DNA sequence: TATACGTGGCA
DNA sequence: TTGCCAAGTAT
C-alpha cells in the first residue's frame, strides 16, 4: 500500500498535468516579462492579456526601453486592457528601475513593493515567479482555494486578513523553488477548477479532502459586496474619452470628445479627472492628447 | 476600511 | 438582457 498523496503532492501533480503554457511562465521568460504580465493581469483575464503582453515585450524588451518613451505611448499600447492607470504605473516603475536599480528588475520584495503600481500581491508574485524566492502569494484565486479547502467557506473575506497570511505561510513549502511552484499551482487550480461561480469539484485533485465540500458546499454568508455600476458612470465616460485620445495620433479637439458623451457636465468632470491623473494633457485652449 | 478605477465575455 | 466576473492598487 502506498500512502495517500498529501495535499501538496496532489496539487503539484495536478499542476504538472494541467498548467497552461503561458509565455511568462517559460523558463526563459525574463523578470521584466513576468513583471509586465503581473501588471496586466491585475483584474484582467489571461485571454485578453496574451496578445498585448506579446506586443509589449516585442516593443519594449527591457525596462529601459519603456522608460525611454513618453508615458502616453504606454497608455496607447495598453489598448483596451482596462484600468489604464496601470500603464502609467508600469511606465513609472520602469523609470524607477532604471534610476534606482540600474535597469534590472529588483529581486527583493521590499524593493519591488516600493515601485509604483506594485502592491503586496504583485511584489510577492514577481519575487516568487521571476526569482524563485520563498514568499506567500495571496491573490484572489489562492484565497478562494484556501477558503474552501482549508476554511470550509465558499469565498474568502473581502480583504486579506492576518490569519490568512499566517495560514498561507504555514502551508508554504520550505524549499523556495517548490514554494514558488506551489503558489502558481494553487493559483492555477483556483483559475481553472476552483472557480468563483461554477467550481469543478468533480475534477478537483483535492475534492475528497476539501472542507467546503465536506460541509456540503454551504453558500457564502459574509458581507455582500455591492456590484460596481458601469452604464452612465464617470468611469465609463473616462473610458470613452481616453479611447478617442488613444486612437488619435495627434492632439484631439474638444469637439471630438463631445461626440462620444452626451452629458457635458459629466464629460467635463471625467476629462478633468483624466488630466488630474496624468492620463491626458491639455496642449491648447481646446486640444488634448496623451501625455508626452 | 470603503471607494474609485476599464473592459469585454459569458450565462 | 442584465449581472457577474477576471493574477489589485492607491487613497
TrEMBL record:
Cofactor: [4Fe-4S] cluster
Keywords, in A-Z order: DNA damage, DNA repair, Glycosidase, Hydrolase, Iron, Iron-sulfur, Metal-binding
CDD domains: ENDO3c
Domain HhH-GPD, chain residue ranges per copy: 40-192
Pfam (any one): HhH-GPD
Family annotation (PANTHER family): ADENINE DNA GLYCOSYLASE
Family: Belongs to the Nth/MutY family.
Name used for this protein in its record: A/G-specific adenine glycosylase
Biological classification of the source: Bacteria, Bacillati, Actinomycetota, Actinomycetes, Propionibacteriales
Amino acid at each position: 500500500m502506498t500512502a495517500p498523496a498529501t495535499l501538496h503532492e496532489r496539487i503539484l501533480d495536478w499542476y504538472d498535468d494541467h498548467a497552461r503554457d503561458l509565455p511568462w511562465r517559460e523558463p526563459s521568460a525574463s523578470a521584466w516579462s513576468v513583471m509586465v504580465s503581473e501588471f496586466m493581469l491585475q483584474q484582467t483575464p489571461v485571454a485578453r492579456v496574451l496578445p498585448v503582453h506579446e506586443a509589449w515585450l516585442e516593443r519594449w524588451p527591457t525596462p529601459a526601453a519603456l522608460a525611454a518613451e513618453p508615458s502616453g505611448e504606454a497608455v496607447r499600447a495598453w489598448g483596451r486592457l482596462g484600468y489604464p492607470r496601470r500603464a502609467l504605473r508600469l511606465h513609472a516603475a520602469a523609470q524607477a528601475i532604471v534610476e534606482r536599480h540600474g535597469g534590472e528588475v529588483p529581486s527583493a520584495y521590499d524593493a519591488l513593493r516600493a515601485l509604483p503600481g506594485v502592491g503586496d500581491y504583485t511584489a510577492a508574485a514577481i519575487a516568487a515567479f521571476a526569482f524563485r524566492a520563498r514568499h506567500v502569494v495571496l491573490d484572489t484565486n489562492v484565497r478562494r482555494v484556501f477558503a474552501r479547502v482549508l476554511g470550509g467557506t465558499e469565498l474568502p473575506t473581502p480583504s486579506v486578513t492576518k490569519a490568512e497570511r499566517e495560514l498561507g505561510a504555514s502551508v508554504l513549502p520550505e524549499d523556495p523553488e517548490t514554494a514558488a511552484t506551489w503558489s502558481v499551482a494553487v493559483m492555477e487550480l483556483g483559475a481553472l477548477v476552483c472557480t468563483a461561480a461554477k467550481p469543478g469539484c468533480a475534477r478537483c485533485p483535492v475534492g475528497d479532502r476539501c472542507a467546503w465540500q465536506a460541509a456540503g458546499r454551504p453558500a457564502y454568508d459574509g458581507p455582500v459586496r455591492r456590484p460596481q455600476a458601469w452604464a452612465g458612470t464617470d468611469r465609463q465616460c473616462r473610458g470613452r474619452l481616453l479611447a478617442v485620445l488613444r486612437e488619435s495620433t495627434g492632439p484631439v479637439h474638444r469637439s471630438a470628445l463631445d461626440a462620444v458623451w452626451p452629458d457635458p457636465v459629466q464629460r467635463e468632470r471625467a476629462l478633468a479627472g483624466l488630466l488630474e491623473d496624468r492620463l491626458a494633457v491639455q496642449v491648447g485652449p481646446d486640444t488634448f492628447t496623451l501625455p508626452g
